[in-house]
RNA sequence: GCAGAUGUGGCGGAACAGGUAGACGCAAGGGACUUAAAAUCCCUCGGGCAUUCAAACGCCCGUGCCGGUUCGAUUCCGGCCAUCUGCACCA
């Protein structure tokens, strides 16, 4: 009787069994080695799962399933990162509560994820919008506040006029809001801020101890943007004020022909009485403030500015007077908001100087400053005591002089700013802080956590940009936890990145209502062993959560100073034409369609087969049919299984397959792992009868990729247990050996023919064997063999 | 502009401590089965030349372009070109 591969009933059957048996539910088991595999938990949008999700999820599911079979106690958890603007928007539009929308979306995601057969720890699902979860997000915020890591500041923030929300630098795309695409403007707002910049060095340093791809490390290092330079004070002539500038090239100080201060620089206000063209300066200031970040970047190549008449600084080394300009190419938010401009040796200064006809002084030889700024190394000229020195020597020398004169010091600056931890939105964690006229900002008592979101009738921010929570006056008005007097609650909520900054810790102990996770769980599960996710989160989520974790570590709350031991990244799944999949383009593929047409196992393997895991890949429903055929053939193989011993060739093939599949999973070369399985199944397909042990081993190797069909086949092969906890096959190096090998014979590097000889002949033996061949005699007849190159078991090259 | 990555058949892609280029799969063409179609199975499948009834065999070219190192280069080195990703006036 031929049994057909009926994926629908097979997948349903096994998903039900796994669920009933709670096969993948995880608890601490100290008798086993642990493995903590993590995928970035999804944002449960109304659109449902995207075909991009299964690429990453299947990869980690394969690794987790393999680890389980290798005897590890595996934690492979799932949860939902559910606070955020899209849900709030949807809720406003549909007129339902965001919590209701979230619940529906999570249900839909859960159904979809279960239909894919992922071996998640379904007993420990978390949801960042659950008060039992965000209680601990709030608790951690309070700990940071107490440790001095969170403060309320007045900050110039990027403001999206469309979303009415403050935007962190990380959420900007070319000066546009990454959500709605509007141009962002500058706005002063009071905001909660986390002192992330103070962790810059630790975040760079910590990368040494973790296994991240090099380019990911580099992206984080570049994002943090550490640069070492010097701060130098320039006296402002006829005043008591000094202009403090920051430069990485103090050695070029003799080439400074003008200074630039940012339009927001406080000195303009302070010395306004001395400025002769105050109107022009003020006018420029107001124009600059109205420019969006987008305009500023667009105008990169077209510098603007105004000379500040009436103010000059004195070069401390040659006492020359230097004029001051204000220009928005100098940013108040970086360094000291002021620079010394050396047009001969800096591209930006060069451009500005050309436009404003400012003279240049060449101080490093080697370039041609008539054409372009020279920014490379060379001997210093026109620089008094620095003449003749190279860049490094000159920098050291000038720094010594600067310190001797007491006019500055070496200093380190970072591009990465502190984390603006405030959103004027409803659908986020309430910030557990209260403002009291007498006591200032006071955190809630921990026993009063969680501080839950109040019910409000409308989720729009106020026109002044206050969070909708401000409208819930009953909720806002409270008493001070410190003095008991009247006080008001903070009405801003936390950004989306809050809940995701520590979720992996909650996974270790998801139901604990005494602590965010017990010490026992934190110690047992330790670091995340392998964290799989997308590149788009490298400078946002990944950096935030590393910071958050390090802060917890410094407070003694977690036992390791880095959360993730190893990180891998996957490429995006693109639409068939190579474009990004997006709702607006209408080219989104819904995994549900594929699962119902071909089955989850086919979709899983297809996504692994589609191309190199770390590279982008274009979807092709057409190509998926090949995987479906493969699984059908594999299923049919069970009919040919007999209780017979394996031949030597069988042994060699199956051991080669064990080796290839095992190694390639570890290297995330899933596409070639699948092809190794195909080669093995093609081989078995040609046989009259397949030895049972061979088929069993093959089924085990297939199971992480296609768990449903594998458990079904395992049952057909006469087993009544689950493959998930069977032993992962081991290969034997000796079994891989063949008795004869093909040797390529080439002449002068060109392949001529191949021939079979016994395996493992020595170089001498191979040479003899080959030279005695009739073919070879033909080729070398009448010619002079200069050299014979032998690569044992591979090739012989005759040089004639 | 800076940094990183990638360029291989009609397509997705294999093979890189230098050693048979095109594994595996898709598409295409031919055949078998069928009344027919689908499904399935078998064969062919980078380009060119010559030979042949036909096939095999044979020879030449071919891994973005130009050069170099080497007995031998998709792989290493130098210089270009193109595409993608990240960052972007950070002094």
Topology diagram in text:
Elements: H1 7-20, E1 34-39, H2 52-69, E2 73-75, E3 79-80, H3 85-94, H4 98-115, E4 126-127, H5 131-146, E5 150-160, E6 165-167, E7 172-173, E8 176-177, E9 185-194, H6 200-206, H7 214-224, E10 227-236, E11 242-247, E12 258-261, H8 266-270, H9 278-290, H10 293-298, E13 306-314, E14 321-326, E15 338-341, H11 347-356, H12 391-405, E16 408-413, E17 419-420, E18 433-436, E19 440-443, H13 473-476, E20 477-479, E21 486-489, H14 503-507, H15 519-525, E22 530-534, H16 541-554, E23 567-570, E24 573-574, H17 591-598, H18 600-609, E25 617-618, H19 621-637, E26 641-642, H20 648-666, H21 670-685, E27 690-691, H22 692-702, H23 707-716, E28 740-747, E29 750-758, H24 763-771, H25 774-780, E30 787-791, E31 795-799
Parallel strand pairs: 1-2, 1-22, 3-4, 12-14, 22-23, 24-25, 26-27, 28-31
Antiparallel strand pairs: 5-6, 5-9, 7-8, 9-17, 10-11, 10-13, 10-16, 12-15, 13-14, 18-19, 18-21, 20-21, 28-29, 30-31
This protein binds one RNA strand of 91 nucleotides through helix 7, strand 11, strand 15, helix 11 and strand 25.
């Amino acid at each position: 009787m031929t049994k057909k591969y009926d994926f629908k009933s097979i997948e349903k059957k096994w998903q039900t069994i796994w669920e009933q048996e709670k096969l993948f539910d995880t608890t601490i088991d100290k008798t086993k080695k642990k493995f903590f595999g993590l995928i970035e938990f999804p944002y449960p949008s109304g659109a449902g799962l995207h075909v991009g999700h299964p690429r990453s999820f299947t990869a980690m599911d394969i690794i987790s399933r393999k680890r389980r079979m290798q005897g590890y106690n595996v934690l492979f958890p799932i949860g939902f990162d559910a606070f955020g603007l899209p849900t709030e928007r949807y809720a406003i539009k549909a007129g339902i509560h965001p919590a209701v929308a979230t619940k529906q979306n999570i249900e839909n995601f859960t159904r979809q994820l279960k239909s894919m057969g992922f071996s998640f720890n379904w007993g420990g699902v978390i949801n960042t919008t659950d008060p039992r979860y965000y209680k601990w997000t709030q608790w951690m915020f309070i700990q940071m506040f107490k440790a001095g890591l969170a403060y309320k500041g007045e900050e110039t923030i990027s403001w999206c006029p469309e979303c009415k929300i403050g935007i962190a630098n990380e959420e900007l795309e070319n000066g546009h809001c990454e959500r709605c695409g509007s141009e962002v403007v500058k706005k002063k707002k009071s905001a909660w801020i986390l002192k992330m910049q103070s962790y810059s060095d630790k975040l760079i340093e910590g990368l040494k101890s973790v296994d991240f791809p090099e380019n990911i490390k580099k992206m984080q290092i570049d994002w943090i943007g550490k640069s070492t330079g010097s701060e130098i004070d320039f006296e402002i002539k006829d005043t008591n004020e000094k202009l403090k500038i920051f430069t990485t090239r103090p050695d070029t100080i003799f080439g400074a022909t003008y200074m630039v201060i940012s339009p927001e620089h406080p000195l303009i206000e302070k010395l306004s009485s001395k400025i002769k063209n105050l109107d022009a300066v003020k006018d420029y200031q107001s124009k600059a403030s109205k420019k969006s970040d987008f305009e500023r970047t667009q105008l990169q190549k077209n510098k603007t500015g105004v000379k500040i008449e009436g103010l000059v600084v004195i070069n401390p080394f040659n006492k020359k007077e230097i004029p001051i300009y204000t220009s928005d190419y100098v940013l108040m938010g970086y360094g000291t908001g002021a620079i010394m401009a050396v047009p001969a040796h800096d591209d930006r200064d060069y451009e500005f100087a050309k436009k404003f006809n400012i003279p240049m002084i060449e101080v490093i030889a080697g370039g041609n400053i008539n054409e372009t700024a020279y920014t490379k190394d060379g001997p210093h000229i026109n620089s008094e005591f620095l003449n003749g020195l190279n860049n490094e020597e000159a920098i050291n020398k000038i720094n010594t002089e600067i310190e001797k004169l007491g006019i500055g010091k070496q200093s380190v600056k970072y591009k990465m700013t502190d984390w603006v931890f405030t959103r004027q939105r409803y659908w986020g964690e309430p910030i557990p802080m209260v403002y009291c006229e007498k006591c200032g900002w006071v955190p809630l008592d921990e026993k009063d956590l969680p501080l839950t979101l109040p019910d409000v009738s409308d989720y729009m921010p106020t026109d002044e940009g206050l969070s909708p929570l401000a409208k819930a006056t009953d909720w806002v008005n409270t008493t001070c936890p410190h003095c008991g007097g009247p006080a008001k609650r903070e009405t801003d909520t936390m950004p989306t990145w809050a809940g995701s900054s520590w979720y992996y810790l909650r996974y270790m102990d998801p139901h604990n209502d005494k602590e965010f996770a017990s010490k026992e769980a934190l110690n047992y599960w330790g670091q995340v062993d392998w964290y799989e996710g997308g590149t788009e989160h490298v400078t946002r989520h990944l950096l935030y959560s590393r910071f958050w974790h390090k802060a917890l570590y410094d407070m003694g709350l977690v036992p390791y100073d880095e959360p993730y031991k190893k990180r891998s990244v996957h490429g995006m799944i693109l639409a068939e034409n190579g474009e990004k999949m997006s709702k607006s383009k209408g080219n989104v593929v819904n995994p549900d369609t594929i699962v119902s047409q071909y089955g989850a196992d086919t979709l899983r393997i297809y996504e692994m087969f589609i191309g190199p895991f770390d590279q982008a890949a274009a979807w092709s429903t057409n190509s998926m049919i090949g995987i479906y055929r493969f699984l059908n053939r594999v299923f049919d193989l069970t009919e040919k299984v007999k209780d017979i011993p394996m031949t030597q060739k069988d042994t060699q093939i199956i051991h080669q397959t064990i080796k290839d599949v095992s190694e390639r999973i570890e290297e995330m070369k899933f596409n070639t792992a699948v092809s190794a399985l195909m080669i093995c199944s093609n081989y078995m397909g040609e046989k009259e009868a397949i030895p049972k042990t061979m088929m069993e081993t093959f089924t085990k190797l297939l199971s992480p990729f296609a768990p449903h069909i594998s458990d079904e086949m395992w049952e057909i092969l006469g087993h009544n247990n689950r493959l998930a906890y069977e032993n992962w096959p081991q290969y034997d190096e000796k079994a891989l050996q063949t008795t004869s090998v093909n040797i390529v014979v080439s002449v002068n590097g060109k392949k001529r023919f191949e021939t079979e000889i016994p395996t493992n002949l020595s170089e001498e033996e191979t040479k003899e064997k080959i030279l005695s061949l009739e073919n070879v005699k033909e080729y070398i007849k009448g010619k002079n063999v200069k050299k014979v190159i032998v690569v044992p078991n591979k090739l012989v090259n005759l040089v004639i």
